[in-house]
Amino acid sequence: MTRFVVVVDTQWDFMAGDGALSVAGAEELIAPMQSWLSALTPDEVAGVLFTFDTHFVETYAASPEAAMFPIHCIRGTKGWGNMLDVALVDPAIPAWRIEKGVFDMWAEPGLALEDAREPNQPTIEREAFFADLAARRVTDVTVIGVAADYCVRWAVDGLIARGFAVTVPAGLTRGIERQIDAVAAEDFAGAGLIVERASTPNAA
Predict the structure, then answer these.
(1) Taking the model in full, what pTM does it have?
(2) Mean pLDDT value across the chain
(3) Residue boundaries of the structural domains of the chain
C-alpha cells in the first residue's frame, strides 16, 4: 500500500535544545527521524512533504501566536531552517515543502507546495495537491514532527477531514503540553488516527 508522509516543522527553533521555542525531548528525535526518512522506499511512499512554520519580525507581534509564544522560526534565520535534510529521502521519492504562518497548515487560503529539491519547478496549490493524491488512491498518510499538540495535531485534523487515514509514530513526535496519546484520545477518538508503537525498524 502506497502512503504519503508529512514531516511537520522539524526546524531548529523547535528541535534544538537552545531553539527559541524548543520542544522538550525533540532534540532526541533528530537521529531517529533521519534514520526513518532514510529507510523510506519509493515502492511504499508516494512522496514526502516538509512543512515550515514561518514568521517575520515585522508582523509577528500582531499575530495570535504572539500572545502564547515568543517569536520563533523567522524566515531565513538559523531557527527557521530544517534540521532534517531532504537528501535523506530516496531521490526516487518526490519531496515537497510548504511554508505556513499559523499552527494549522490548512487554515491559510492559497498556500502552495514547492519542489523541495528543485525550487524553480512550478508550485502546486495545496488543496489540488491533496485532491490528486486521493484521486490516485493514496489514502494513508504518516505524520511525524512537532509539536504533537499544536502543528502536528492540526495537520492530522485536516488530513482526516479530507478523507485520509492517518498514522503518527509515537516515537517520532513530541508535544508541548500534551503528548500524542493524549491528543489522540482527547481530540480524535474514533476519528481515524492511529498512534503507532515501535514495532518495526521503520517505526522508530
Answers:
(1) 0.94
(2) 94
(3) 3-203
55 three-state secondary structure: strand
The C-alpha atoms of residue 89 and residue 132 are separated, in whole angstroms, by: 22
Q: Report the chain's C-alpha Rg in angstroms.
A: 16
By the 8 A CB rule, do 3 and 133 touch?
A: no
Give, in degrees to the nearest 5, the angle at Cα 33 between 31 and 34. Answer: 65
- Going 197 to 198 to 200 to 204, the CA torsion angle's sign is positive
The CATH classification of domain 3-203, taken from the options 3.30.70.980, 3.40.50.850, 3.40.80.10, 3.40.630.30:
3.40.50.850
| Closest among 65, 79, 77, 60 to 19, alpha carbons compared | 79
For the stretch 181-204, pLDDT in tens is: 999 999 999 888 999 987 443 443
Question: What does the alpha-carbon distance between residue 204 and residue 113 come to, in Å, rounded to a whole number?
Answer: 27
User: What is the β-pairing status of strands 124-125 and 45-53?
Assistant: unpaired
